[in-house]
Amino acid sequence: MTTIIAMTRTPNTHGDMKRMADAIAFLTARYLDQPSLDAAAAAVGLSPFHFQRLFSRHVGVSPKAFVGHLTLDHAKRDLAQGASVLAAALEAGLSGPSRLHDLCLKIEAMTPGDYAKAGAGLIIEYGFALSPFGLAIVAATDKGVCALGFGDEEEAMFADIGARWPKAEYRRNDARAAKLAGQIFGKREILPLHLMGTPFQIKVWEALLAIPSGTFSSYGAIAEHLHNPAACRAVGAAVGRNPISWLIPCHRVLGASGALTGYHWGMERKRAMLAVEAAKLDQDESPSTSAMTSVML
C-alpha cells in the first residue's frame, strides 16, 4: 500500500513561467499555421515586445526560432542516415563529453534486489512546480531525483508516480520540488539522479543520456548500441518506462521515419521539447545571427 504523509506545501505561482508554458502549448498546437507574434502574445495577455523578451528569457530561444523547429524536418534528415550511423553517434556521446557531463548529472542506480521490493523502505518526497512545459511533478529519494513528469492534474500525476513504486512512503514537499525544478530548468548545478528500474531499463536510460541535445536517435539505433539489434521492441518498452523525463531524454527517440512516436507525457509536449533543443543548438552554433531576433514569427 502506498503511504502518503502531508508536508509543508508552497503554492504554485502563476506568473511569467505559467505564461511561457501556455505560450509553448499555444504555438505547438498551431505551428502549421505559423501564428504571428501578435497572436501568440495576445494568447497569454502580453504585449508583443514583452512576450518576445519573456519567451527568450525563460525558454532560451526566440519565439520565431522555436516555431521554426516545430516541423522536425531536421530530425527526418538525421534519421535518414540509418540506425548504424545513429548508433555510432551514441558511442561517441558515451566516450566523449556527453550530455551526462554537460549537465553535471550524478547517477546512482538501484540494485536489482532493491528494485524487486517495489519501493518498500524508501521515502520519496514529491511536489509540483511550474516549468516551460507546463505543470511538473518532481520526486526524489535521499539519493537524488527519481522521477520528473508533466501533466495537467496533480492527482493523476501523483498516481502515475505512485504506481511505479507502490510500497514506498510518499511525502509531499513542494518547497524541495521547486528548488529541484530551478536546478533542472534554470541554473546548472550538480544534480544527482536515482535510477530505479530493471538492469535492462537502466542500460537503455544510460544510452539515452548519450544523445546530445538538439539531436535524435531511434529505437533501432539504441538496440544496435546495446549489441542486440533484435531488441527494438524491448528498447521501446524501456524508453516508455523512463520515469525521469527531460533529464533522461526519452523525447529524443523517434521512429525510423522521423515520425513522433508515443510519449508518456503527451505528443505536443515532446514536439515542443525537441524544438526548444534544436533552436538552442542552432543558436549556439550561430551566435552572431541568433542575436538578431525578429519581431515577427
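The above is record 1. Record 2 follows with the same two-line structure.
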Amino acid sequence: MMRSVQFAIVVISVAAGLAQAQERLLDQRTSEYNEILVSETADGLRVLRFEPGGARQTVVKPGDPEHLELPYARAIPVGLALVERPQRVLVVGLGGGTIPSLFRKHLPDLQIDAVELDPEVVRVAKQYFGFREDAAMRAYVQDGRKFIEQRKNLYDVIFLDAFSADNIPYALSTREFLVSVRAALKPRGLVVGNIWSRSSNWMYDSMVRTYLDVFDDVYIVDVQGAGNKLVLGLTWNARLDRQQASERAFALSRRLGLRYDLGRLVAYGFRPPGDDGANGRVLRDGDQEDEPEGTSRTSPGALPAADPPASP
C-alpha cells in the first residue's frame, strides 16, 4: 500500500510539472497561507495552483461558468439533487469560485455563502476567474471551521472543498468539526466532502469512518476520471440506492439545463461506503498523527490523465 501511494504521488507530481511548464504564467504571489500561481493554457483555460508544479485547484474558461474542466466539479452538484428545494448553501473553500459561480448561473434564487481563509485567494478569484459577489452570493474571509461554529444561518447543503497545497486541514476532518457541520444543517440537509481516495490519501479510511460516526446516512461517489471521492453525509436515513440517486441527479440536470448528464456521473460512482472506513479510526481534535514516513499528501483538485485511480 505504501509503495502504491508513493508511486501515485510521483506520477501526479511529474504530470503536474509538465502541465504547468506548457502554461503562461499570469500572476504569482505569496500570501500568509499559500504560494498562489495563476496560469493560462494555450487554449485559454485559467488555472489556479497553490504551489509551483502543484495540483490544479481550479480550472475555468473565462466568461463561461458552465465549463467544468475538473471531473469532481461536474459531480459535486449531486448534493443539490438529494435535497428538496434547496434555499441556502455554504461552500467552504473558494479556490477560483467555480462551484458557487456554477450554482449562481443555474439557481438565481439560491442564497450562496462561500468562506475562504486566504484573502488573496478571494482577490485572485475575482481578478482572474470571474467570481463576482452580489446580493445572493457572498464571500467571507474567515477560517471555515470558525465560520460554521459561529454561523448565523442554517444550510440545506454544505460543500467542503477546502484544501491547502497538501490536503484537507486536519481541523476540517475531525468528529468535533463534523458535529458542528451537522448542527449547521437543516433537519433534512446534507454535507458533501471532496477528498482523495486511499491510493493517495493515507487518512482516507479514517475520514470516512468519522463521517459514519456523525451522520445518519453516508454515501460515496467515486468521481469518474479522477482520484477524488465525494463523501455525502445525510442528517436522515434516506435508504438510497444507485438508481434512485441517479434518477434524481438526471432530473436536476434537466431542470437546470446542465450541459452534461449528472445522472450518468452518479450512476457511475454512487454507492454505500461498504468497507471504506472499516480500517480507519474516528478523527478527533488533539489526536492528529504524523503521516507515515515516506508518504505525501496531494490536493484533490483533479489533475490531468495521471490522476491516481479511484480505489474502493
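The CA atoms of residues 126 and 132 lie 6 Å apart.
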